[in-house]
Amino acid sequence: xxxxxxxxxxxxxxxxxxxxxxxxxxxxxxxxxxxxxxxxxxxxxxxxxxxxxxxxxxxxxxxxxxxxxxxxxxxxxxxxxxxxxxxxxxxxxxxxxxxxxxxxxxxxxxxxxxxxx
Amino acid sequence: xxxxxxxxxxxxxxxxxxxxxxxxxxxxxxxxxxxxxxxxxxxxxxxxxxxxxxxxxxxxxxxxxxxxxxxxxxxxxxxxxxxxxxxxxxxxxxxxxxxxxxxxxxxxxxxxxxxxxxxxxxxxxxxxxxxxxxxxxxxxxxxxxxxxxxxxxxxxxxxxxxxxxxxxxxxxxxxxxxxxxxxxxxxxxxxxxxxxxxxxxxxxxxxxxxxxxxxxxxxxxxxxxxxxxxxxxxxxxxxxxxxxxxxxxxxxxxxxxxxxxxxxxxxxxxxxx
Lengths: 117, 273
Known about the structure:
Number of helices of chain B: 10
Number of domains of chain A: 1
Number of strands of chain B: 5
Shape of chain B: rod-shaped
Order of helices and strands of chain B: HHHHHHEEHEHEHEH
CATH architecture of chain A: 2-Layer Sandwich
Largest sheet of chain A: 5 strands, mixed
Strand content of chain A: 15-25%
Low-confidence stretches of chain B: none
CATH superfamily of chain A: STAS domain
Helix content of chain B: 55-70%
Structural class of chain A: alpha/beta
Structural class of chain B: alpha/beta
Helix content of chain A: 40-55%
Number of helices of chain A: 4
Shape of chain A: globular
Oligomer: heterodimer
CATH topology of chain A: Transcription Regulator spoIIAA
Strand content of chain B: 5-15%
Distance between the termini of chain A: 36 Å
Number of strands of chain A: 5
CATH architecture of the largest domain in chain B: Orthogonal Bundle
Mean pLDDT of chain A: 88
CATH class of chain A: Alpha Beta
Strand order of the largest sheet of chain B: 1-2-3-4-5
Largest interface: A-B, 21 and 19 residues
């Protein structure tokens, strides 16, 4: 099973999803992220989905869940680099990703997190 | 009745009287087009058609039927584009019967032959109707596509602020196109504020509102703030009386207000020189 690496940069955890997400790898990512947040006490999480071309309702819910988990550790989640087609799909699925902030790219995502702290 | 025999005899008869029939047919058609085409043009068109009709009737050539249909489609669509009504085109085809009837009227023994020609010409007349409506539909589809392309400009108002001035009624197809263009432009320009201006949208009902909300939430997923501007007093009243909720989406009366809000959020201020 492929794993998604989690990088710690300063007080931010950086997750770049470069693989086709399977259900197990998504659950594994949630577990890893929770462990990492507990271990590092990071204040923010950036999830980069530039390479994600296809989403379904499961992945949409996973993103919301990650947002909720992070908030329990007092960290804010910013989703960056969403493709237009993915945004349209999520809207059509009726998922507005409440509780997760979004930004056009990783740079703007970092600005949001730094503006907060 | 020996259909093949009568067809062939008719073909032979037409071939023998080629000039007389085509001449009379051209006269009848020219009278019908009322000066919109010259006699030479008409005569050239009909010569081709007549040759194909004879080939179909003689039954020797299996490609003739297809060629005749193609020629009719061509004729019908060119007439449609030149503003002829479908009945004018069809009457033009039907007048072949009249031209031939005038010749065979005296000879009673040619009745079955004339009947077989008449059936073929009826089919041809109907065919012109079909291709006429096909041509019209093609024109309508082309225009609809052209309108869709024209009606969705995305303009840059400021560094990081883009606007979509919407004009005309919003339906699902247009919303989809607007959404795609808006999102693509957001990604391409890196803008983080979008304004949807609905000054030109005549009515806002629940469906249109639903479409607007979808567009706004898709833009938000990309990380851009979205403002709806250009809400006219009547539209505001309709929205309230329909009970439409725009939630936390910012709405402004004019594009200028929306731009001011976007500048404010970007930390910019416009001051007099």
